[in-house]
Amino acid sequence: MTPPRVLTVAGSDSGGGAGIQADLKTMLALGVHGMSVITAVTAQNSLGVQGAWELPADAVRAQYRSVVDDIGVQAVKTGMLASAELVRTVADLLAGTAAPVVVDPVGVSKHGDSLLAASALESVRTRLLPLATVATPNLDEVAQLTGVRVESEEQLREAAEAVLAHGPAWVLVKGGHLCGDAVDLLTDGSAEHWLRAPRFDNRHTHGTGCTLASAIAARLAKGDTVPEAVATAKDYVTGAISAGFALGSGIGPVDHGWALTRGVPRA
């Protein structure tokens, strides 16, 4: 039987901890068939991003059509889109695809390197976010997109409302940069789901955002509701963070394969 198919539209991380590489590992771990549209190539390791080169819009469009028109998709996840032109290109493609879309509005890498041109922010707001079934910004990305700066758990609701104003059906505001437990808020403007997990004393967290968004997309492809998909994805990424490991001389990645050896259900 063919497994559910999930397409990631994102940049390549040569170090293997984030981006396309993290997405495909997550999809494999959660029992779906992962496919990819590469939007940019980065020279990246545990210390940071040494270079980034976006692909032409025609190359992105051709990859997308090649996969969707022949193989089909049950969910799409977007990550690093780099430029306004690529954001518009991907938004046009998504608008014609009947599948849930998880938008991870990647703006800055774990090491603080910019991965989205400032000129692209308006296109993300007006073209990409309105297509999202779920948007998954972290606090830095919330500030980039809305100007709302969150310094406490109580402000997560304000941040979510500001992102929802741009049109996604649901928003998951990730509060991982706050002190205390790792708490996130999922809401569609009516229902609220607060997701809380312990914070681990582990600095090797490269790829958490990509991993979480891809896990949500995988679960949506399997038929979960948005709250179900996000709760399961949160559990998966919490385990991956706890098992994160040293790699190189900087920040190592989360362990995408931890669920394969510790018995997390794939069904």
UniProtKB/TrEMBL annotation:
InterPro entries: HMP/HMP-P_kinase_dom, PM/HMP-P_kinase-1, Ribokinase-like. GO terms for molecular function: hydroxymethylpyrimidine kinase activity; phosphomethylpyrimidine kinase activity. Signal peptide: none annotated. It is an enzyme of class 2 (transferase). The keyword Kinase applies. It catalyses: 4-amino-2-methyl-5-(phosphooxymethyl)pyrimidine + ATP = 4-amino-2-methyl-5-(diphosphooxymethyl)pyrimidine + ADP; 4-amino-5-hydroxymethyl-2-methylpyrimidine + ATP = 4-amino-2-methyl-5-(phosphooxymethyl)pyrimidine + ADP + H(+). It holds the Pfam family Phos_pyr_kin. Catalyzes the phosphorylation of hydroxymethylpyrimidine phosphate (HMP-P) to HMP-PP, and of HMP to HMP-P. This is Bifunctional hydroxymethylpyrimidine kinase/phosphomethylpyrimidine kinase. It comes from Streptomyces tropicalis. The lineage of its organism: Bacteria, Bacillati, Actinomycetota, Actinomycetes, Kitasatosporales.
